[in-house]
Amino acid sequence: TALRTRIHALIYNQGLPSIFLTINPADIHSPVALYFAGVKLDLDNIQISQLMTTYKRAEIIASHPVATAKFFHLLISNILNTMISNGVLGSIKAYFGTVESQGRGSLHLHLLIWLDHEMKPADMKEKIQNADFREKLIAYLEDIIKEDLDEFKDKHVFENLDMTRTFNTPPRLSQDNIYAALRTIDLTGLGENINKSPVWSTPIKQQLSSSTPYASPSIPYASPLWNKSLQTPTRDGPTSIMNVLHNQSNINPACLPTPNPSSPNFAARFRADVVQLVETDNKHKHSDTCYKYCDPKQGDKKICRLLMPRKLVPVSTIDPDTGHISMRRSDPWINNFNEYIISACRSNMDIKFIWSGSDAKALVYYITDYVTKMSLSFHDTFALVQKSITSFQNSLQQTSKESAIEKSRKLVLRCYNTLASQQELSGVQVASYLMNWDDHYTTHKFQSLFLIQTERFLQAQLNEICAKQKMELAAHAVI
Fold first, then answer.
1. 243 within 8 A of 270, measured Cβ to Cβ
2. pLDDT band for position 346 (50/70/90)?
3. Residue 79 scores a pLDDT above 90
4. How far apart are CA 257 and CA 255, in angstroms?
5. Are residues 363 and 390 in the same domain?
6. What is the mean pLDDT of the segment spanning 232-236?
7. Is the CB of residue 334 less than 8 Å from the CB of residue 306?
8. CA angle, corner 474, sides to 470 and 479, nearest 5?
9. Quick one: which of 20, 188, 239, 266 has the fewest CB in 10 Å?
10. What angle do CA 153, 115, 100 make, to 5 degrees?
11. How far is CA 174 from CA 152, 153, 332, in A?
12. Considering Cα of 35, then 41, then 45, then 48, what sign does the dihedral take?
């Protein structure tokens, strides 16, 4: 395919990629997506009540594919331009990402990243024999890839908003202890949080109220029950601790804004935000997708294709003999994440370090195969082609004066149109194409080389030169 050819060209030009990143934006939880869909929101002063229920948000997003496509493009473009390109994972020299549509129609990104170094896999295997290099590589990987939440829970101090009080917590904080510590902080204007449960309920469709915030883009919505606002990072004033707001309103943490780095007590806010996002959106839960390639006869012995749950590893190590990297992990269900990227995208993500050439080849095939996969099964395709041939044969009985070449051309065109008309595309995909947003993101521009046409041109030039030479020789012989 064209995308696979471009990635191969980039590998030939820049070497093998170093990092594989997946970002799956949660459009149904984003106030920005709702704003694009016409919901009247002040993004600098979002009211909790305006975020509605999960079901109603999903209903609005599903009804506005252009808004969803715009949200995806805006979010991905900003993450790539401001975070990836500016070194949140280290200095890079290239990236190439492909856009895929998932079951419910929303989009997500598979991204290959080239770190700015010139080492080949053979060089890496040679360097890992050095203990100092192994330690530095482990330190780098532990800095950009997290496989558990220990670093965010094992903090001893939670500062007050006015920076005048500290709270000593046990060396190993549980999730409940984090919420308990944050609940003791004096939150201006919020009062005391009485909901001690960190579990967030999903509203049931039958329990939804008939009155909804989405009535008209020009009509603001206000709930008589809640009028609390979520301060976004653009505000300079004190912001609400993420988990307290969440517990009070039963809102998915993906709905809440990223903590403001200039706000007091940012470090504690940021850690709490990461903990909530990961535990809510980045923990694996088995589904039918996990076993779609398994033999149904295996029963309970089926293995999750994402290899969950994963093996617990107390200390990160690199085997100098095999080059195998084992990253420290204390939670078997958490997908790999980077705290800064997940806080920015506020959604499910995954990140993997590409160690070998075989891994790189497998990932290139994986991400391009998803983009180019056909939604039609073989038997459906065969039936549609047969239908096209039958229809074409019936039309030939009326006009049989055409040449064989013209008949063949029309047959191929009819088969193609029949198959293309039956391909399943989500509304968001169609909207993205119509808005001229590409199905991939990259740092490089590519120029296609049409080798067949080039070969024909060169052959024609060669034939012309040979003909001239023969004429000159013939003229010289006559003289």
1. no
2. very high
3. yes
4. 7
5. no
6. 38
7. no
8. 150
9. 188
10. 80
11. 10, 7, 16
12. negative
For residue 465, give its domain range. 454-479
Full-model pTM:
0.69
Strand partners, 103: none
Residue 408 has which token pair?
A: 């063949």
Half-sphere exposure of 102 (CA within 13 A, CB side): 13
142/313 Cα distance (integer angstroms): 13
What number is the average pLDDT over the span 119-125?
81
Number of domains in the chain: 3
Measure Cα distances from 429 to 99, 107, 238, 297, 438 in Å.
9, 8, 39, 36, 10
* pLDDT tens digit sequence for 267-285: 999 999 999 999 998 888 8
Q: Which residues contact 8 (CB under 8 A, 6 or more apart)?
A: 364
Among 441, 426, 442, 438, residue whose Cα is nearest residue 66: 426
More confident: 464 or 374: 464
Q: Could you say which DSSP state residue 260 is in?
A: P
SS3 433: helix
**Residue where one domain finishes, among candidates 326, 347, 372:** 372
Residues 324-349 have a mean pLDDT of 91
Q: Is 351 helix (H, G, I), strand (E, B) or coil?
A: strand
Contacts of residue 198, Cβ cutoff 8 Å, sequence gap at least 6: 175, 176, 179, 243, 247, 276, 279
Shared-domain flag, residues 468 and 337: no
Out of 372, 389, 416, a domain closes at: 372
- The pairing of beta strand 325-326 with beta strand 317-318: antiparallel
CB 232 within 8 Å of CB 43: yes
Same domain, 318 and 405: no
Q: What is the pLDDT of residues 165-185, one digit of tens each?
A: 332 333 333 334 333 333 333
Structure tokens at 403: 């040449």
Q: What is the pLDDT of residues 392-407, one digit of tens each?
A: 777 776 666 777 788 8
140 Cβ neighbours under 8 A, 6+ residues apart: 90
Helix (H, G, I), strand (E, B) or coil at 477: helix
Q: How many helices (H) and strands (E) does the chain have?
A: 16, 9
Distance separating alpha carbons of residues 380 and 373, to the nearest angstrom: 15
Please provide the DSSP assignment of 191-230 as one string. Answer: ----------PPPPGGG--S--S-S-TTS----SS---EE
Position 447 in a domain: no
Same-domain status, 349 and 404 = no
